């Protein structure tokens, strides 16, 4: 008998205690902190460390960086205990970061069509998301939804994750259409930019995994 797949869940852009505690309570696999100043979800290394201390070891911590220099990452790691580095960068730069810091690296891959889907993974995981609007001030976290049909039947041999426009009311459909092993949400579980809603977090995790209470 095959064991049913349990969809991995990452909640990104935590800035406050209630949201962090909800991620831990409802069993998120990864909790993300954004170290990109243009984002409304930006946190300092010290703030990330303070939040992470509320639930050590209960979920893996992911630090998101946009085209970072080594010193940017090192400055964060002096304070915040990150398990994973998620970056926007080239394949070669992502490999450099993995080698330099000895941590798993996830590489964000914005796509607009099936022909842009990657055929190999230079690091530990790829994060597939829609290309940002031309006038966007940040490469991700724009609440855009990818056309999931682009991913139907796509079954790469490497770990990957889906992001972009996911919410509690559509994540089950996204998982069903794409067969994705893990999902990433930020604005879809917020009551305001950077402020997570515990009830939405609970619903998102439950729906991503096909779990219902009661």
UniProtKB/TrEMBL annotation:
<dbReference type="InterPro" id="IPR044643">
    <property type="entry name" value="TrpF_fam"/>
</dbReference>
<keyword id="KW-0822">Tryptophan biosynthesis</keyword>
<comment type="pathway">
    <text>Amino-acid biosynthesis; L-tryptophan biosynthesis; L-tryptophan from chorismate: step 3/5.</text>
</comment>
<keyword id="KW-0413">Isomerase</keyword>
<feature type="domain" description="N-(5'phosphoribosyl) anthranilate isomerase (PRAI)">
    <location>
        <begin position="9"/>
        <end position="207"/>
    </location>
</feature>
<dbReference type="GO" id="GO:0000162">
    <property type="term" value="P:L-tryptophan biosynthetic process"/>
</dbReference>
<dbReference type="InterPro" id="IPR011060">
    <property type="entry name" value="RibuloseP-bd_barrel"/>
</dbReference>
<protein>
    <recommendedName>
        <fullName>N-(5'-phosphoribosyl)anthranilate isomerase</fullName>
        <ecNumber>5.3.1.24</ecNumber>
    </recommendedName>
</protein>
<comment type="similarity">
    <text>Belongs to the TrpF family.</text>
</comment>
<keyword id="KW-0057">Aromatic amino acid biosynthesis</keyword>
<dbReference type="InterPro" id="IPR001240">
    <property type="entry name" value="PRAI_dom"/>
</dbReference>
<dbReference type="GO" id="GO:0004640">
    <property type="term" value="F:phosphoribosylanthranilate isomerase activity"/>
</dbReference>
<dbReference type="Pfam" id="PF00697">
    <property type="entry name" value="PRAI"/>
</dbReference>
<dbReference type="InterPro" id="IPR013785">
    <property type="entry name" value="Aldolase_TIM"/>
</dbReference>
<keyword id="KW-0028">Amino-acid biosynthesis</keyword>
């Amino acid at each position: 008998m095959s064991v049913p797949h349990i969809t991995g869940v990452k909640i990104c852009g935590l800035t406050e205690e209630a949201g962090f505690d909800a991620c831990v309570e409802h069993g998120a696999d990864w909790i993300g902190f954004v170290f990109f100043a243009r984002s409304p979800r930006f946190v300092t290394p010290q703030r990330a460390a303070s939040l992470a201390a509320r639930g050590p070891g209960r979920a893996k911590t992911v630090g998101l960086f946009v085209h970072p220099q080594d010193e940017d990452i090192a400055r964060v790691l002096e304070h915040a205990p990150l398990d994973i580095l998620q970056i926007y960068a080239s394949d070669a730069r992502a490999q450099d970061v993995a080698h330099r810091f000895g941590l798993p690296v996830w590489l964000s891959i914005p796509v607009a069509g099936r022909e842009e889907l990657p055929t190999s993974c230079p690091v530990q995981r790829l994060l597939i998301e829609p290309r940002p609007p031309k006038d966007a001030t940040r490469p991700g976290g724009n609440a855009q939804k990818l056309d999931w049909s682009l991913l139907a039947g796509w079954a790469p041999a490497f770990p990957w994750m889906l992001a972009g426009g996911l919410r509690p009311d559509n994540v089950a459909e996204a998982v069903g259409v794409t067969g994705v092993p893990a999902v990433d949400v930020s604005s879809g579980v917020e009551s305001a930019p950077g402020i997570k809603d515990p009830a939405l977090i609970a619903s998102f995790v439950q729906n991503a995994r096909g779990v219902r209470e009661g």
